[in-house]
Amino acid sequence: MTIRELAVALGYPAENNSYISMVEMGKRVPKAEFMLKVADLFGVTMDQLTRDDQEV
Questions:
Q1: 26: domain range?
Q2: Assigned domain for 37 exists
Q3: Is the separation of the CB atoms in 46 and 56 below 8 Å?
Q4: pLDDT digits over 1-56, tens only?
């Protein structure tokens, strides 16, 4: 999935994918709303999404 496709799947405009790119590169901390949307999209819990020591 491209960043553009992810932006659209999360309900953001396709052109507004710079925030996702910055989060991916570790240059921005994701907002809670963004993380909830990602968790819902991929069918995981917030705990699974935020803990690096668990396999998703």
A1: 3-50
A2: yes
A3: no
A4: 899 999 999 998 888 788 899 998 999 999 999 999 999 999 999 988 888 776 65
> Using an 8 Å Cβ cutoff, are 9 and 1 in contact?
yes
Whose tokens are 């020591």? That residue is 53
How many domains in the chain?
A: 1
Identify the CA nearest to 16 among candidates 7, 24, 29: 7
47/3 Cα distance (integer angstroms) = 23
Q: Which two tokens stand for residue 43?
A: 């069918």
- Report the SS3 class of residue 9: helix
- Rounded Cα–Cα distance for residues 14 and 56 (Å): 26
